[in-house]
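Our consortium's second objective concerns turning raw sequence data into structural hypotheses that experimental partners can test. To show how far this objective has progressed, the report includes one record in full. It was chosen at random from the queue rather than selected for favorable results. The single chain below, 306 residues long, was entered without modification.
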Amino acid sequence: MAEDNAVTLYSNASVITDAKKNTFSIKVGMAQMLRGGAAVEVTSLDQAKIAESAGACCVIVSDPRRTGISRMPDPSLIKEIKQALSIPVMAKVRVGHFVEAQILESIGVDYIDESEVTGVADENHFINKHNFGTTFVCGCRDLGEALRRVREGSAMIRTQGDLTGSGNIVDTVRNVRKVMGEIRVLNNMDDDEVFAFSKRIVAPYDIVAQTKQMGRLPVVHFAAGGIVTPADAALMMQLGCDGVFLGQEIFDSVDPYKRVRAIVQAVRNYNDPLELAQVSSGLEDAVAGLNINENRVERFGAGDAY
């Protein structure tokens, strides 16, 4: 069982929870600091200041949207943001690109997001995150993928939904429900069945056993993709997530401060409908830039049937 800010690892039939001997426990403790918050993706210093003033728990510095391949953000921008802000700074790297991660660690980022949203540098290998002292975040779409990333050293999991910035939350809801549903199935299994389950989802048995023991993912679990309203954020929290990621599209609105502030309040008060109604009031203009137009609508029947 995990202690306050430490995660239990099963290795050679021994349990490790001593943070002095297990640096992974320290990374998990770093990730715990973000629980109950909203992390906001930014591409400039001005956006980072807006996110901080609105109450974001962390800013995620990313490469400005452009045609072609997205890469690690400019290190000079990250340094500028770190000097100006008092909240933690996260930056994105491409999947498998350990040199980008080395660069970010050298300039002192607080968290590194190995992001499939940014791009893939290595199709067959993720970064060995145990080789780094910085806390890593990785994405997933199901329980097996999440636990494989934890085995590689990710101390925080981001269940990923929409990657296009359309403001459509349906993929995020589907993937979060899938992860939570698989955990509930695991919790109801006999211990003898866990071996077969871990094989079926292609995840390490020891981490699967720990997940069953804890009744949840063994690390902090955020949701990302399509979260653009306070109700979206509260939905993710009520489904069992520890917090939310807000994408670059959050700044497409007329008043991004107002919208980020409302979402931060929704995350903190996700079980209070009256508070949610209050923070959701007057946001129609603030989300006007995110309304789905004809070109961004996927017709029913075009894909898999419900």
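The partners drew two points from this record. The longest helix spans residues 170-187. The mean pLDDT is 86. Both points have been shared with the crystallography group to help prioritize constructs.
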